[in-house]
Structures are given as structure tokens and as C-alpha cells.
Amino acid sequence: MELLAHGVGSRTDLPIPLGLALYGAGAAILLSFVVLLLFWRQPKLDRPSSGLPVPAAMQRLLDSTAVRRGLQAAALAVTVLLTAVAVAGPAETARNLAPWVLYVTFWVGLVPASLLLGPVWRVINPLRLVHRGLRVVLPAAPGAGRLPELGLWPATASLLVFLWLELVYPDRAEPSTVAVFLIGYAVVHVGLALWFGEDWFAAGDGFEVYSTVIARLSPWGRRDDGRLVLRNPLVNATLAPVDRGLAAVVVVLLGSTAFDGLSRTVFWQTGPGAANDSLSGTVGLLVMIGVVAGLYVLGARLSGRLAGQPEGIQPRRYAGTVIPIALGYTVAHYFSLFLLDGQTTWILASNPFGLVAVDLFGTYGNVVDLTAVGSDAIALVQVGAIVTGHVVGVTLAHERALLSARRARASDQLPLVIVMVLFTVGGLGLLFGF
Fold first, then answer.
1. Three-state SS annotation for 38-103
2. β-bridge partners, 53
3. Which of 190, 376, 393, 433 lies 20 to 30 Å (CA to CA) from residue 90?
């Protein structure tokens, strides 16, 4: 199986006609919008003091510096091992553990981990530990205090670099490429953290910001007094701060999955992408991000203008409502990859350096079980994830409109809802090779 094939189903995998799926998905978004207008007339999610507090002993454990440093040390050890495997392990991608861990287990697994556990990478990020150790020797941070001006734009650039590597660069799966990326990523981000201070990771580390953005839909939250609570994930999404650059982050995530779908169509493979080179892929990726950005900004600004909101703030104001949509696309594009190709990680982990007569966990002779999930189940999860993401996005956008104007007129929100319908239909069409 080719690494990074993503296992995305074709049109023949969909157990219902594609046209019916497209019309049904669009109708579901519009119907949910009508239901919200009729029955959701007052804000329901703006409750910062809500939630079930976790036991104090559990919070002390989770917030313990010793626990966090221990987790960071473990993550650092794994990262060093993977780098060593990428450098000195088997030369063939199919037998080298590092590419499978980076592109499948880590990148895709970060989504369910962040949904279930909260901003997990912020807690265990090994680069924070490296930075803290170097800060003892180099304590000064000349650029400290300048990060608020940048918002999440540095993380947007960081994510774009990784997504270009994953989706465009032809030799992305080569172990040497993985080694260069891991070392280069660490050097760049630790160096920038030494300049800007430790707050750099929360604003510039693409993986940490990605985990934090996804975690806005997790059940874990904090009240204003710092108490850790379990509550409705939609409340967490509503209460999350409207960070500068958040819209850029979600647009890059949406645009990259759109390009991923486009790159698997016959149109792309026999036309613009036939050469399979970095130039055509780069242009295609940037064009799809640009299309998504243009549609989103247009819809958000029109909705804001109709609601009488100040010009220029609407894309940032509604950015959080696009997170469930980006999450839905991510699940749709990576679900089968994680369940099928992800098995390779556990097979190769039993003998990471490919040595003779080494089988630590007794799995090295196993093969990937392609029957672990059927094509019908994959297709249904893909459709369900995209539609659910958009329905949740419409709900959050409606709540955001209520919080902004304390009223909800259909005309105010309709432009953004139409854009979400276009995203739904376009996303499903690209996903199934339309």
C-alpha cells in the first residue's frame, strides 16, 4: 500500500447515489438553519461558569509540573528515536517506522487525542522541554512581548509548510526527508522560542496550535477561576477566544483537504497534476486555499454587514464556527488512513531499526488487515463527518450572531450558510471524485 494514499473512497464506494448524497447533505444544512431560526432565539452556550468540576486531586495531578515535564521527556525520547530510525533505519519507506509515525499515527492521531483529552500537544510538546533546558544557558528573549501582534499567523505558516510536505512534495515519504523535517522543525521552533520566549509555541508551533484548535471541541474546559471542568463541547467552542489569525489557520486546514480531494480526481491526475511535480502541486494547493479563503471571507463579511457589525472583524469573529467544518473534512479524509495504514506503525515498532531476529512485541511478521473496516463504512463515515461538521458549524455561527446582535434574522446569516452549503457539496464532490 502506498504511503499517504489516504484511503479516500471513490464514487463506487458510496452505498447511495452521489447526487442524492450531495442534495441530502445540502438540504440537511439548510434544514438545520431553519430549525435554529425557529427554536433557538436566545444565546444558549455563553456560560463560562458551567461545567462539572473534576476532583481537585485529579486537577492537581493534571496540572502538576512534574507530570508535564515527564510527559515531555517521554515525547522527546520518542522523537529522538524516530529521528534516529529515519537516519539509520531501513532505507525503504515500507520498512521504516519514521514516515508512518509522522504522517499517520502522529498527524492523524492528534485529532482524536485532542478531541478526547483537550490540547494534548501543548502539554507534552517536547520542544518546550528543550527550550526550557537551553534557557538556563541563554536566558534572554530579545523579542519577548511582540507575539500578540502576530497572533496565530506564525502557526498558519508552520502548518502550511507541513501540509505542503505531506500533500505536494514527491519524496515526502523518504526516511531522509522525514529526518530533515524533524531536525529542521525542532531547530527553527526552538530558535524562535529562544527569541520570542516560551509563548512562541502557543502562537507559532503548527502542531501545538492545531491540537489547541481541535481541542476547542473537546469536553475539557476551564472556568474563569481556573477550575478544570467537563462540559458541553459547544460551550467550549463558543467561549474560546477570537484569536488574530485563527481564520487563516482554519482556512489553510480546509483548503488543504480540498486540494487533497482534488489531487485524487481524474481531472487532476490527467491534467494539471499529471507531471506529479512540486510546482503544479504547490500552485494547486495555494489555489484551493485561496478559493476557500475567498468564499469564507465573502460570506462572513456579507453576514456581518447585514447584521450591522463593524467592517473588518467578521472573518475573525466567525472563524471558530469553521473549526467543526475543518474537523469534519479531516475525519473524512484521514479516517481510513488511520485505521488501515496506521496498523503499519505497530507492526514496524516491533523492530524499528529492521535488525535480524528482533521482534520486540511479536508483531513484525504481521500484515495490514485491509478488512478491518469496509468501504461502505468508510464512505458513510466520510459523508457523516462532513455533514455533521457543517451542522455544528451552522449552530455555532447562529449562536455567534445571537451574541453579537441579540437577534437572529435569516437574511443576516444566509450568506455564511450558503458558503457552508457550497463547502459541503464541494467537499463531498471532491472526496468521491465528482
1. HHCCCCCCCCCCCCEECCHHHHHHHCCHHHHHHHHHHHHHHHHHHHHHHHHCCCCHHHCHHHHHHH
2. 229
3. 190
CA distance linking residue 146 with residue 197, whole number of Å: 10
Cell of 353: 531499526
Phi, psi of 173 (to 5 degrees): -90, -5
Residue 357, sorted as left (phi over 0), alpha (psi -120 to 50) or beta, turns out to be left
**Secondary structure (3-state) at 229:** strand
pLDDT in tens, 16-74: 555 666 666 777 777 887 777 777 878 788 787 888 999 999 999 999 999 999 999 99
Tell me the β-bridge partners of 230: 52, 220
Say how far apart CA 75 and CA 213 lie, in whole Å: 20
**Can you tell me the distance from the alpha carbon of 412 to that of 195, in angstroms, rounded to the nearest whole number?**
44
Instruction: Give phi and psi for 229, each to the nearest 5.
Output: -135, 160
CB-based contacts of 12, cutoff 8 Å, min separation 6: none
φ, ψ at 52 (rounded to 5°): -95, 110
Look-up of cell digits 438553519 = 33
Task: Determine the 3-state secondary structure of 252 from DSSP.
Answer: helix
Q: Are strands 52-53 and 228-230 parallel, antiparallel or unpaired?
A: antiparallel
Closest CA to 394 of 312, 302, 305, 323: 323
In whole angstroms, give the CA distance from residue 310 to residue 304.
7
Give dist(CA 288, CA 166) in Å, integer.
Answer: 16
**This prediction's pTM:** 0.90
CB atoms within 10 A of CB 140: 9
Amino acid at 23: Y
Asked if 385 contacts 331 with a C-beta cutoff of 8 angstroms, the reply is yes
